Amino acid sequence: MLLPMRRVDILAPRSRVGSVLRSIHRAGVLHLLPYEPLPDVGPAVFGAQPTTGPGTPWDTALERVVELAGLLGPARAPSGLAAELWALDDDALATEVDRLATVRDRAARLTGERMRLDGQATRLDSYRRLVEGLRGVVGRLPAVRGFGSTGIVVGARHRAVIGLIREELEQMTDGRCEVIAADFGPDRVAGILVYPLRLTSDVQRLLGSRDLEEVTLPEELAGVPFDELGPRLAAEAARLRDASAEAERELAETTARHGPRVVALRLVLGDRIAEAGALSAAGASDHVAVLGGWLPARELAGLRARLEREVGQEVVVLERPAGRGHPPDAPVALENGRLARAFEPLASFVSLPRYGSLDPTPLLAVTLPAFMGLMIGDAGYGLVMLALLALARRRWRATPAMAVVWPIGVSAAAATILFGVLFGEWFGEAGRELLGLRPIWLDRREAMVPLLILAISIGVAQVGLGLVLGVVNAALLRHRREFAGRAALLVSLGAILVVLGWISGRLPDGVGFAGLAGLVIALGVLLATLGLAGPVEVIGVLGNVLSYARLMAIGLSSVMLAVVAARLGGLVENVVVGALVATLVHGLNLALGVFDSTVQGLRLHYVEFFSKFVEPGGVPYAPFASSLPEPGRGTGSRLNGGV
Amino acid sequence: MEEAARFLAAALAVGLGAIGTAWAQSRIGSAGAGAIAEKPEITGTILILVALPETMVILGFVVSALILFL
């Protein structure tokens, strides 16, 4: 159902508007609107609150805290600490942010140090691997003080590059260099260049212009004989790693000590920025400020009491009188039972119903699983669906998606099992042949015409119900033309059914003539209300009804594929291979069945059913709520105002 | 001969409907994919638009069932 809403204006002394906003923010029930003049109050009294520019004073503070949170890594804020910070006034909060400056410096230093040490250790490891890989040839290299070395690795296809580099290096150093190269792994060639240390930057420039993997030996290891270089490099890399681990340990200690406060500050600053933004949407005179918005009717008394308790009696909550019809800016909050709540995102997937109209969610919660069950209609498949859902729930129990998928999936699986039992289908024919399970109601392989009649009857019932609800909706929204048009369509549908019954000889002449008269009158009303499009609408309604034949068509394809799976498995002489083939085809059929029945079931609702009564274009209810959990606030978290 | 013509008519009713549906869905699908890339919030509407032409093959199926079984 759609919760009844109330439009309120909250008036407070201008000096107290900050406290009012904070109280409203914590209450989390008011859907704030930009300032709009009060009824019977001239624009000269209140003007829009002067804007304070695009930013707020807290933007920079939040940026700094977010940066620090990124340096410190994940942490959790205890709710008590967040509440304590939330209660601070602006000056105290700013002091809290300033106090973190030393923590930020320390965290930045430790992070930078750790990155530098890790980078150096990685570089040394690369060089060590190079030296060890070329152990057979590096012994020929001179170990002369004042000379540096750089290792390079190129793909085997680009082996010629090393020769070019040798030529350029000899030119650059007047021949005072050495280049050793050898195969390094199956598809790479490595080389070590030895050159005077003073030319290091020139050599790096030379190498930088080419697509090479290069690593330069640190200056302190220059001149060390190459056969001693491997162990020296390993020891140096280990020392660097120890230093990096020490920096990481210190960072973890800092996170443990300050992380919760940083996370809490981040939440609180986010809230302060939201409050500053909301303040700019308020109206204000010299002495009085006014905030306006919508809230569920049942929350009104609670908000009044809260404002009186937290701010004082000088705050007045004025409720605007409900006019005729429903205002277009009224937000929509859906509230349904536990099972139906899971269907709310599907019901409002295409468009949220307008405030004052009917909520299609409870109907969808009943008919969508029933349609899916009717289309898949195999008890074995239903049991597999339940098992897969149970596994998924074990794995992703805490995720929000599972809160939606689980109720929908379980109800669809239950309907699939029920229809499977009625149709006598357990993995197609397997139940019948192995266990002798027979259909209780219909054998879908043979009863095609009864199934087609059943599907179209469901169409008549659902489209008819949609038109009845459409008439009710038009009456609720006081739309006279829609009321007359939908009533005429409803009469047309009924009259056509009566005339068909009369033509087929099942109804007496009197009833048939009455039906014919009803059809003519309904067409006249449609012409008057919708013009020439009116009679075309009648054809559209008949098309909607026939569209339900897909319930039978998809069901038939599902049962035939299940039969194919069983027979294909039976054709193979090897039992194991036969079972594997049957399982694969059944798996494909189940996947297709679940996907197709979901899409087609939803399509029948969106196009054929909802289009008859749902008034689209609702505004989602988005209460101005703090990111901190409010003890005792139940309504806000249970309401679903969005798509 | 009459029986063969009946089966042929039933096959044509479904087959031509399926071809029409497939052609319409291919056009709507490609245009819809482009539209969703520009405005992801219209995904729901596009899904409905893609599913709309299926009515043609369903109606063809109904006609085919009427030819075969009535």
Q: Averaging pLDDT over every residue of chain B, what do you get?
A: 88
Separation of the first and last Cα atoms of chain A = 15 Å
Percentage of residues in strands of chain B: under 5%
Q: Count the beta strands of chain A.
A: 12
| CATH arch. level architecture of chain B | Up-down Bundle
How much helical structure, as a percent, in the residues of chain A?
Answer: 55-70%
Tell me the strand percentage band of chain A.
Answer: 5-15%
Name the chain pair with the biggest interface and residue counts per chain: A-B, 17 and 15 residues
The tally of structural domains of chain B comes to 1
Question: What is the subunit arrangement here?
Answer: heterodimer
User: What is the radius of gyration of chain A computed over CA atoms, rounded to a whole number of angstroms?
Assistant: 38 Å
Q: Which CATH class of chain B applies here?
A: Mainly Alpha
- The general outline of chain A is flat
Query: What structural class do the secondary elements of chain A suggest?
Result: alpha+beta
Number of helices of chain A: 23
Query: Percent range for helical residues of chain B?
Result: over 70%
Shape label of chain B: elongated
Distance between the termini of chain B: 18 Å
Record field, number of beta strands of chain B: 0
Describe the structure.
- The complex is a heterodimer of chains A (643) and B (70).
- Among the domains of chain A are: 120-234, Alpha-Beta Plaits (2-Layer Sandwich); 338-612, no CATH class.
- In chain A, the strands form 3 sheets. In chain A, strands 1, 2, 3, 8, 9 and 10 form a 6-stranded antiparallel beta sheet that branches.
- Chain A is built from 23 helices and 12 strands.
- The model of chain A is unreliable at 632-643 (pLDDT under 50).
- Chain A is of the alpha+beta class and 643 residues long.
- Chain B is mainly α and 70 residues long.
- Chain B has a single domain, classed as F1FO ATP Synthase (Up-down Bundle), CATH 1.20.20.10.
- Chain B is elongated, with a radius of gyration of 16 Å.
- The two termini of chain B are 18 Å apart.
- Classes of the chains: A alpha+beta (643), B mainly alpha (70).
- The interface between A and B is medium-sized, with 17 and 15 residues.
